[in-house]
Write a structure and sequence with these properties.
Structural class: alpha/beta
Strand order of the largest sheet: 3-2-1-4-5-6-7
Number of strands: 7
Strand content: 15-25%
Number of helices: 9
Radius of gyration: 18 Å
Largest sheet: 7 strands, parallel
Helix content: 40-55%
Shape: globular
Mean pLDDT: 92
Order of helices and strands: HEHEHEHEHEHEHEHH
Oligomer: single chain
């Protein structure tokens, strides 16, 4: 418990924006950080937002389907008009559709949604909220990524591609922001036990376990935070990239 208090001191009295905080990892991040910070949430309109408001009456909620860029712009504009600096932006929201291109239940329209939620909205939000991040004495953009950005699996090709794109984008954006008060961090997750992963895989970690590692990594100032089994994936990649590719292909 003593170590946890030390870590949390680095994320106190901040204005933190979280996307996709109505459930899963985003909700776990919210629960961990809300007691000592001011939280703004951007989340898809749903019945879950009523429960969120009831549990966290002090947070600000901007409703936006992140696949709708006009809605993303409206949510960002509402935050900008408040005039408050943003200390941390967690780009957490993501969707994953599991049918393969060769499956009869693959739906063409999911291609655009997956790209827009997982990647386009991230780029848009960062651009639109960058002036507020620049106002902070020291700000962080935290892009929640996946081990699949390092080595893809056979299924969910679009999801893997969006995570690969997010990895390269984050690195390049970090170069652009060198010398400013804003840093770019990435979190590479293994499979986390959320609604998105229901019925898939084993050996999942809980959202709370993931958040504990994320907070520890951010507090330690690490630019890349490998959570759980992703640490092992990095090691295997260094020793044998081909072996890592084979393992992840069947993940």
């Amino acid at each position: 418990m003593k170590a946890q208090r030390v870590y949390d001191m680095e994320l106190q009295n901040k204005h933190i924006v979280i996307t996709g905080a109505a459930s899963g990892l985003g909700l776990a991040i919210l629960r961990r950080l809300e007691p000592n910070n001011r939280i703004s949430v951007i989340a898809r309109p749903s019945g879950g937002l009523d429960a969120l408001r009831a549990e966290f009456p002090k947070i600000s909620i901007q409703e936006a389907d992140l696949a709708d860029i006009a809605a993303v712009e409206r949510a960002a504009d509402a935050l900008v008009k408040r005039g408050d600096a943003i200390d941390v932006l967690f780009n957490n929201a993501a969707v994953q559709f599991t049918p393969r291109f060769t499956d009869p239940d693959f739906r063409y329209e999911t291609i655009r949604r997956e790209i827009d939620v997982n990647f386009t909205s991230v780029c848009a939000l960062i651009h639109l909220l960058l002036p507020q991040l620049m106002q902070a004495q020291s700000a962080m953009i935290v892009n929640i990524n996946s081990g699949l950005a390092l080595a893809p699996k056979a299924g969910s090709a679009i999801y893997c591609a969006t995570k690969g794109a997010l990895n390269i984008f984050s690195q390049s954006l970090g170069y652009q922001l060198e010398g400013t008060s804003v840093s770019v961090k990435q979190v590479f997750l293994p499979m986390v036990d959320t609604k998105m992963t229901d019925g898939r895989g084993g050996g999942k970690i809980t959202p709370e376990q993931a958040v504990a590692e994320i907070v520890a990594g951010l507090s330690a100032g690490r630019p890349n935070i490998d959570v759980g089994k992703v640490k092992l994936l990095r090691l295997i990649q260094r020793l044998s990239p081909m072996a890592a590719a084979r393992i992840m292909k069947g993940a």
